[in-house]
Amino acid sequence: MRDFITSQFGVSVVLAFIVINVLLGAVSYCIYFERKISAWIQDRCGPNRVGPWGLLQPIADGIKFLVKEDVVPNHVDKPLFIFAPAAIFLVAFIGFAAIPWGGQLELDGRLVNIQVANPDIGLLYILGVGSMSVYGAVLGGWASNNKYSLYGAIRATAQMLSYDIPMGLCILVVVLTMGTLRLEEITLQQTGYWAGWIPQWNIFLHPLAFAILFITALAESNRTPFDLAEAEQELVGGFHTEYSALKFGMFFLAEYAHMITASAFIAVLFLGGWHLPGVSWTQPQATQWYAVLAKIVVLSTKIIFFLFVMMWIRWTLPRFRFDQLMRLAWKGLIPITLALFVLAAALLFFDRQRSPLWALSGNLVILVVALITASSSRLRVTGRQVNLPTIAPATDFVRLGRVEMPL
Amino acid sequence: MTSTTGYVLYLVFALGAAGLYYLLPRTGASKTAIGATLGVSALVGLFVLLGAHGSAQRRDEVYFYLFAATAILAAVRVITHPKPVYSAIYFVAVVIAVAALLLLQEAEFLAVALVIIYAGAILVTYLFVIMLAQQPGSPIYDRRTREPFLAVVVGFVLMAMIAGRAGELPARAAEKAILADGGRNPASTASLLTGNTMAIGAAVTTKYVVALELSGVLLLISMVGAIALSRKQITSDVIRSPRRTLGQIGKEVEPF
Question: For residues A49 and A56, what is the distance between their CA atoms, to the nearest angstrom?
Answer without folding.
Answer: 9
